[in-house]
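Exercise 7.
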Amino acid sequence: MGIRKKLHPMMTNDGKCVMYAKACFSITSNEKTIFCGVLKKVKMPDGCASNISRCVQLKDKKVSSYKSHDAHFMLHYLLQVAVRSTMSNQVSHLVIGLCSLFRCLCQKVVDLTDLNILQLDIRNTLSIRNHFLPSFFDVMVHLPIHLVNEVRSGGLVQFQWMYFLERYLGNLKSYFRNKSCVEGSIAEGYLVEECLTFCSRYLHNGVETRLNRMTRNSDRCVTNEAESPIFFSRIGHLIGGKKNGEAMFLDYKSSEHEKEN
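Solution. The predicted structure, written as tokens, is:
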């Protein structure tokens, strides 16, 4: 049929063995190790995503047990770096273009004039059907064509995501205490938290509550040692200088000597 002649079987010089050329999207074992190593050694800001490195098994060369938000984050940022050094240019450019499309659609500010450009880019990006197997394509591959129109009609993607609702449902699930009365225990726990939050608003500033507690990674500059959550005692002294106790003793002797004079 003359389709993809580069992938046709080739006869060796012996005329017996048959060699199959590798597809453009296939990667070797060493490239798989590099791909997993990029995800294993990545360092991200706090609260940006979960610990993706624990989902990577370098020995088995697999990435598993990650959440939907982690997949969303890897698609936007990490996959582009990992693919660039492991796949051919004709495949990596298409994957990077697809990742860039989703990152542009999920921005906090989207210009309406850029949506027309994104609509044209997604058509060129979906030309990956010329490089991958037909079994790879399903309705999800066709879905990105309609995402630009969905943003134009429904607004920003942040207001259509389910991450916020899932996080809130996780908080309600933490109130669960009694298996025989699931709804009652959740309602009681929610009521207790609301009462404590209401009371904490009327406490003076000296009482630490969830409203004035310092966050885990606070950018507030601490100038007073009493305000610092970690206090280090200053027991050291400069090299070549005098210790604190010795300096106080010499100051005391000099003051007494001045009084006698």
